[in-house]
Amino acid sequence: MSLPSRRAAALALALALGAPLTASLSGCGYNDFQRLDEQTKASWAEVLNQYQRRADLVPNLVATVKGEAGFEQDTLTKVVEARAKATSIQATPELINNPEAFNKFQQAQGELSSALSRLLVVSENYPNLKANQGFQDLRVQLEGTENRITVARNRYIQSVQDYNVKVRSFPTNLTAMVFSYGTKPSFTVQNEAQISQPPTVDFGKK
Q1: What do you get for the CA distance between the two ends of the chain, in Å?
Q2: Residue 31 in domain
Q3: Could you give the CA distance from residue 120 to residue 15 in angstroms, rounded to a whole number?
Q4: Of 13-17, 140-144, 168-172, where does mean pLDDT reach its minimum?
Q5: Are 148 and 50 in contact (CB under 8 A)?
Q6: Model's pTM, two decimal places?
């Protein structure tokens, strides 16, 4: 057999073997894992985007509140410290595959949420702040961002649920073991309850 003939025969054999392999990978859920994994990464990226949006609002919010004479310094300090802690954690895509790091990250974000909520509540006691258009604009932006965080987190929770069901279900759990697809961490029950009710402050009419 000539060299070109041997090459043609080898190519034909590879294609013949490759077709069943492709069908097998598809049937065992391999392709689904690829799709669901990318889906969780995309939804997580949106969560991070909204968290960053909130973090970017904090300095201006704090600067505006500092202009109010006699404002509770402890409340401001906790917001500044919580933001510093939340932004010090490197939120890489790999974070969603590390339950311990993920838990640390969400705790830091939860502390920032609590500190900001406290800031808005305390600000009700300062008429000048309620009449400050700059503060009002920042408050609206913050509340809008909190709503976006809620939506983004809920999408992430759903995408992780879809992925984890595939990891645990038979026979795709066998594929998960072969290719080392482990379950991904999600937000805790407490966090899910918290995000379903984003902080809302009624400043009343001016």
Answers
A1: 93
A2: no
A3: 65
A4: 13-17
A5: yes
A6: 0.77
Number of domain units in the chain: 1
Average pLDDT rounded to a whole number, residues 27-46: 91
Residue 18 in domain: no
Structural domain containing residue 164: 37-195
**Cα 164 to the chain's mean position, in Å?**
16
Least Cα distance to 28 among 181, 175, 162 occurs for 175
Q: Of the given ranges (11-25, 46-60, 109-123), which has the lowest mean pLDDT? A: 11-25
CATH number, domain of 168, equals 1.20.1440.20
Give the least confident one: 19-33, 112-126, 130-144: 19-33
